[in-house]
């Protein structure tokens, strides 16, 4: 990789001829999709609001970062001393880590927002170490610290990956991007195992790599389809940390994928947590493990995180930008710009086009967008959900009645997203006195997810973000009891109470234990707050199943009649309902010409297609959309 | 391959337990998709109208042929003596060839129809050689004799291929055929480079492998599409011998394809001729040759010919049957039966649903058919062609007027099909006195194609077939002069005259020489009688191009204004016009549920789709068709 290949040489020559002598450049190399310029005098590049960096970036059409020349850097001891003096005490500097491979210095602080930018510049110019500010969450998060430690421990491996990535992203294309195909690997005419392959003659980009939860194990996307070739995969882009979008990602690494994965930083953290839990549950339940922690670590080290709005080259002639999706913490919509103006694709992933307590709504103004791939979970005309406020009232009623009966409210939740939303709702109801302060039991994993939320307040709604800035923990109160190893039989004894447990569709996890114990208690309630995929136990119960069959910890099969009261509270959904889907399409800027519906049951997809193609919709909106509804295992051309 | 694999063992055991002792079976093996039973007493199998063979075939669900035990065969000398006595003299026995590898004896006779079946049985029972009757054409055909010689010289190679094929066709499938895809490799939203891949999880069948003629060389189908993998290709099925359907076939062998090709016997012969001509023209014109005669010979030896109506297994759970297409000699429609009743596909290839002088119309009653892939060359509402009789009158008028001006009628023809049809029309007009008997010049290749027609009278219309049976050559008269090496300048001197020359779309071949010489002769006429593909010189002239540029034999570029009168006579087309396409769909039995339109320009395809999907068409016909118009490089699911 150190061989000077054509592209790198061109870039070096362009930079050399554009920079004044006094800049004292000592090296130019790739660092992922960015070009890193090593210099003895970073101030030449960054003064005047970084005018020189901007000019270089414009000329070479690549993003540029400036790094201090390794020889000229201040020694770590003196640099640390300088940093400790420079950073204002109110920022709460906790730790300083030097990465001698990249020349970065990590400042772990309690309040990153309290360090003025000029302080960081001063640190850089004086020490030649590039400061990188990390938030230290107010509560301890195992996930956050483990990921930070992993990267620190693997700094050489990581920089090697980034250099290789740069060379690959900027390779000279052999074929022109004159044909673009959408290959349906999963979540077309179904919900689950999301996987969309965007294919040009030169590049292959996989959007999401999910699992489909079913009654018997999980189904992978159609990775055996001839269109999909791991060897020629350029990038995997993950929209958010739910197993039906990210669950198959470690499998790709197990199969031998060595390329990059793009996601937001919260998604990276939450995904790690999901994978660990998945392996743990599989082991406990004696299921076949699809992958191991080794595969998870490979993928963590091959992940390149992006913020919303950050434009990045991910293959020759393909640029990726994430936009806010409003679904869960860090959830993103994908914008791909292909072939210098040839075509632009927006893939929504899971998306909520409405404000929630936790998150701002999905964004829908794009620089360009001809093709929209939109989720259709609630694509049927009848899929109109109540507002979150109404849902809260309904939940309050169920909780109140169950408390009066001295029962337990058991709420199956996805660890990520719904759990936090429901927790916030319950705390708010208790605060307002609408519901008595009964104990709320949550499994440890849900608590860890809340801690990750507090590490990334920039991704949350203004209200919650402000609480975190003010050092208030929005997810805790005295009533919340985090379960750490207590026997589940004992927990259920404490009545009345509320229990939040995973998995959200009753396909595994601790919730099944609680359900087994509580099933024949007619005073207790089972409350579904999220979408139940076809074939899951959750869906079956909603469809009327009352004869349940469990395996207890000793391996004995236990049959029980479900006597709990079963409720479905819909307003907490992280998905847009039918009205919101329609509004998203109507208000999207610019209007797309082609809309591809995915992530929905076949019937809902067809119904939504008919509606969007109808004369009525055309007249009402003035939109003449080409609405496509490919099935899994189809490949369609958009150019 | 000699190892007894599971399938073969099963078959052998089934046969052994179903056959009486006195049959004296000595060996059972595959011979292509058929199971060959070697026996000392073939009469046991074939007596009572072959009752035993039929029973075995029904039990093992495979086609069965009976071969004499090699040890017990009569020696070749005595066998030949026996045959010469047994065959009635009126059959005109000319040659006898023994194939000691397969145990067949070829009887080359002038009139195969004059040998009663019982004579052949007697030859078999007495000599233990299986008689195979071949027609010796009344005029010499280089193609026919070369192909027969090739097979005789490669008898061991051929039987090895057939055995291997049998094992491959009858392998135990690993995946169930629960998904069937149509992958568009060529001729979707265009005319030319026909190539349709039918793909199940277990098998890959390529229907046609054509080239697209263009202004600059020929375009291959999208063989670089990831769905297409030469290694896992099970079979290539060719509908007819036109380069836009068969022209890329030798390229597959050049790339390393080693599997079987299925076509009719006339298609095999005509294709060989086309390939030779293609190579010759390419060499003469200094173009890049896409393949060599070595590749052509490989494909000839890997071809398995089928008659119309013959049902054959070509892969596990896939059965192929050819039906008459009415387009050119030997042209076939493809019927695929997939997965024990899962789905049936009819692919028309090029098809004429009307009687012509030369051929009976396309067949359209099938045992089952859910999906129809139909050509749409004339899919536009305005594509209504005159009848062949009207076309003849129009041609007569043009010829008469040109003769009066003492000019030359230059007719660019595809060597195969249109040339014979136009020749028949001209001869008929002269016979009836509608046109004076001026000389008709044809290039040697067209004459050779006519000779191939006379070798396969069973594939022709009743009238022409009867002429051949009566030993009349329908394609000759005193006026026809076959050009063999004469200077083209000299030919054009003989005015008035008619010249038929290839290629039919002015993309190369001798017609370009004649056009160069005659271009500025305003007394002469240029008459197009077949479809002109977009981008070809023929199409451009029809669109008004009059400034032509040629390279003369010395390599000099010559610019000429086209002063010839340009005509287009449409009724000789080998394609169905719009009314015939519609009639074919309406009258097809059973009615398909899905109709896929291909082999048409994008505009015509769209127009035809709109019509077939319209309420008007539904009401008129009662058909509620799902009409699909995939583009090249799309993969759609039909199951």
TrEMBL record, chains A, B:
Cofactor(s) the record lists: Zn(2+)
Location of the Metallo-beta-lactamase domain: 192-403
GO biological process: DNA-templated transcription termination
Residues annotated for Zn(2+) 2 binding in this entry: 244-245, 350, 599
EC numbers, comma separated: 3.1.-.-
Keyword field contains Zinc: yes
Stretches assigned to coiled coil: none
Cofactor note: Binds 2 Zn(2+) ions, which are required for nuclease activity.
GO terms assigned for molecular function: DNA binding; RNA binding; RNA endonuclease activity; RNA exonuclease activity; zinc ion binding
Domain Beta-Casp: 419-541
Residues annotated for Zn(2+) 1 binding in this entry: 240, 242, 327, 350
Keywords for the protein's UniProt record, in alphabetical order: DNA-binding, Endonuclease, Exonuclease, Hydrolase, Metal-binding, Nuclease, RNA-binding, Transcription, Transcription regulation, Transcription termination, Zinc
Family that this chain belongs to: Belongs to the metallo-beta-lactamase superfamily. RNA-metabolizing metallo-beta-lactamase-like family. FttA subfamily.
Functional note: Terminates transcription on the whole genome. Termination is linked to FttA-mediated RNA cleavage and does not require NTP hydrolysis. Cleaves endonucleolytically at the RNA exit channel of RNA polymerase (RNAP); the 5'-3' exonuclease activity of this protein degrades the nascent RNA released from RNAP.
Subunit organization: Homodimer. Interacts with RNA polymerase (RNAP), interacts with the Spt4-Spt5 complex.
Protein name: Transcription termination factor FttA
Organism: Thermofilum pendens (strain DSM 2475 / Hrk 5)
Lineage, uppermost ranks: Archaea, Thermoproteota, Thermoprotei, Thermofilales, Thermofilaceae
